[in-house]
Amino acid sequence: MLELYYLKPQTIDRLRACWLGEPIEQYVVWLTENGYAARSIFHRVPILVQFAKFAEAQGAKSIDDLPAQVRPFAEDWLKQRGANCRDEVARRGMFDAARNPVEQMLQLVLPEYAAGSARRDRPDPEPFSEHAPQFFSYLRNERGLMESSITHYRGSLRAFESYCQEHGISTFAGISSVVLSSFITTHAPQLSPTGRRDLCFTLKVFLKYLFREGLVGSDFAESVGAPYAYRLAEIPRSISWEEVRRMLEVVEQRTATGKRDYAILLLLVTYGLRAREVAALTLDDIDWKRERLRIPERKAGHSTAFPLSPLVGNAIVEYLQHGRPETDDRRLFFRATAPQRPLERNSIGQRASYYLRKAGISVARPGSHTLRHTCVQRLVDAEFHFKTIGDYVGHANPASTQIYTKVAVEALRELAMGDGEAIL
Q1: Taking a C-beta distance cutoff of 8 angstroms, is the pair 239, 299 a contact?
Q2: Last residue of a domain, one of 77, 94, 120
Q3: Each residue of 76-102: pLDDT tens digit?
Q4: Cα–Cα distance between 269 and 162 in angstroms, integer?
Q5: Alpha carbon 16 to chain centroid, angstroms
Q6: Pair 274, 178 in one domain
Q7: 22 lies in which domain range?
Q8: Is the entire prediction scored with pTM above 0.85?
Q9: Are the C-beta atoms of residues 423 and 389 closer than 8 Å to each other?
Q10: What is the phi/psi pair of residue 287, to 5°?
């Protein structure tokens, strides 16, 4: 495999003569198979050669001795080359640039190191795990919450835990009504009305649990008053169709990334898909013969088959032919950079947010849902029935479509002047 990247036999011989030559060549094969660019491989191989020399100088005699040398090597690399780094971020980048190739290679050749890395990459411990270790088991087993709901508890309590640590509160004995009020006052302004309500509700559940278990002497839950969050209080954060055109125009469609992102944006705004629905699309969901696009397992518990728009279909074909990496995976959209992995839902939202900002479009919380709202608003403006709109975008509850009545001016006028049941 080295022959693909190095023309001089002397260079190849020198690499293979290195005492880590075989693992390095194995790593180069892995990089190639996972779609890494040649320039990235050229950058990584010299780092591995330097690591081999460093580890040998420190007394390493076998591959099993290498894990202990990873961090010292990265620190030495930074010491030798980091004098011109502008700030701490640049220094951290240089440290990671030396450490990451070494760790990738070791994960490839040492199964036990890969397992250790997986342990290092585990999520942070649950908040308050030392003093209330059974709380999240209580949420799962007694309250029967889904993991998606528990994730929200985890985020809110992690913020509260950080606040307590910052203010020197190391035990539950330091919790008081004043502390709770101060935390909510500090943290809540960053959240939406619904987020503030959920934060307070999480605290109430946590505090009731602490009192029930005898971990605090008073039931502080009563001192936490959740603010009201009225359903349909906000208006949808949609954009105009002219702004949609502006957003699409800033996509550089001559690149593989641009071809992919253009197809993603069209799917979001044409069909009102959620980010997770776009991320889950596979090659099997497109029926080219019947010109159908299938969206399985929607939030409402059913699947939807859409007519495949020529504009969307052409964008997908362009991506498949000139942007999608060669892979046996059936998922439709992939990362543009190595390693070649399918895009996740968060990446879909980030791409939508990126192009909205790039086009200079100002909207609250820009992302994939902005384009979903825009799709629904266009259907409302076209005077489709709300039941039809809800089915089209996969609303689990018909009430989810009601928020768009706030901007359905003509429909409201008809409701005020005639038979209201006709438009429902």
Answers
A1: no
A2: 120
A3: 999 998 888 888 788 888 999 999 999
A4: 39
A5: 40
A6: no
A7: 2-120
A8: no
A9: no
A10: -100, 95
Burial tier of 377 (Cβ tally within 10 Å: 0-12, 13-18, 19+): buried
Mark whether 323 and 401 lie in a shared domain: yes
Separation CA 294–CA 297 (nearest Å): 10
Active-site residue numbers? 274, 299, 369, 372, 395, 404
Inter-residue contact 295 to 394 (CB < 8 Å): yes
Q: What is the domain-level CATH number for residue 294?
A: 1.10.443.10
Measured N-to-C along each axis, helices 147-166 and 177-187 cross at an angle, to the nearest 10 degrees, of: 110
The answer to whether residue 145 sits within a structural domain is yes
- Candidates 346, 279, 266, 356; CA nearest to 313 is 266
Residue 343's Cβ-count burial label (10 Å; 0-12, 13-18, 19+) is: buried
Q: What is the CATH number of the domain that holds 187?
A: 1.10.150.130
Identify whether the C-beta of residue 351 lies closer than 8 Å to the C-beta of residue 264: yes
* Same domain? 64 vs 201: no
Cα gap 394→51, rounded to integer Å: 53
- Do 292 and 371 reside in the same domain of the chain? yes
pLDDT value at 179 more than 80: yes
pLDDT range class, residue 193, cuts 50, 70, 90:
confident
Position 122 confidence tier, pLDDT thresholds 50, 70, 90? very low
pLDDT of amino acid 267: 96
Q: How confident is the model at residue 103 (pLDDT cuts 50, 70, 90)?
A: very high
User: Of 69, 97, 120, which one is at a domain's C-terminal end?
Assistant: 120
Answer yes or no: do 78 and 156 share one domain.
no
Locus of tokens 């799709």: 375
Residue 94 lies in a domain: yes
pLDDT at residue 124, as a whole number: 57
* Nearest CA-CA partner of 212 in 155, 135, 129, 125: 135
If you count DSSP H runs as helices and E runs as strands, how many of each does the chain have, helices first? Answer: 18, 3
DSSP summary character for residue 293 = E
Name the pairing type of β-strands 292-295 and 286-287: antiparallel
The DSSP call for residue 133 is T
Q: How far is CA 217 from the centre of its chain?
A: 40
Domain count, the chain: 3
The amino acid at 176: S
Residues 154 and 292 reside in one and the same domain: no
Residues 81 and 164 both lie in one domain: no
